[in-house]
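Recall from the previous chapter that SMILES is a line notation for molecules. Here it describes magnesium ion.
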Amino acid sequence: MSDKRTEIGEIGEFGLIDHLSEKIIIKHNSTLRGIGDDAAVIEAGDHVKVVTTDLLLEGVHFDLSYAPLPHLGFKAVAVNVSDIAAMNAIPKQITVSIALSNRFSVEAVDALYSGINAAAEHYGVDVIGGDTTASRSGLVISITAIGDAKKEQLSFRSGAKVNDIVCVTGDLGGALVGLQILEREKQVYLANPEMTPELDGFQYVTGRQLRPEARMDIIHELREMEVVPTSMIDVSDGLASELFHICKASGVGVTIYEDKLPIDKQTFDTAVELNLDPITCVLNGGEDYELLFTIDQKDFSKLEKHPDIHFIGHVTKAEDGKLMVTKSGTVVSLKAQGWKHF
Ligand SMILES: [Mg+2]
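With both inputs in hand, we obtain:
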């Protein structure tokens, strides 16, 4: 080891993942896909298994002063199910590992697990194992999810082709705006504990932050309509960042249209109230857990009338860049800011 010291912040989370994965050598033919997508893919007879894992840390990913334990348990499962969905696979099993400080009572653990079990029921997954240990620095939740698909049903980040249509589900930016409201009310409460948090009128956005849904409904509908997205990713770090991942993995560019970006009215109004640009929230807000995918033009007519799938742009050649056409018709370059924990 040399004396050189590189701060993790210099290369960022994605840089760190690239740096670590460079040194990994795949030894088994059954490992069809390792690091680099929403989930790894393992051969299993005439099907494949997809595997994803996620780590949630108190003080980094959640704040127990406003995240109710049942919601937190539900969210911990949903974010993993979302990564299985992003592969166009069906979640089947999860393992749940937790590290607890002595601050936690059995009742508190029960509250956390009530959310985990509710999500397991909701998404039809079995809790098949895990680990429990002591923590000296707050609550840690790690969940691994295993999903199932036929090989030809999988959607990777790398399959987008020029002229494909870019689709996104639901609406975006709500989770970030909800987080800002929760933080604001926390500061008000800390300054004056007599004050009750003012969350009336912010239920949608705070709900997007505290108890997100994985879009398994969309995955089932795509199957019914016999549409396999050419590429797919879930929106965990922000739309712009996810578009960059698809473009990099697929070797393509993209053009999206500002007036096509889906934003909920409460998200828009609350962003304005908070002096945030609503479009910046849509492009760079994380944790919406919607699905971003591309489809071949031949499939457009099958999805055209879907009330919750929005067609926001198209795939271009890599050299055309990653662009957004604004409402006024100006073309701007997209920037992937994403969620920065480091
Ligand atoms: Mg993902």
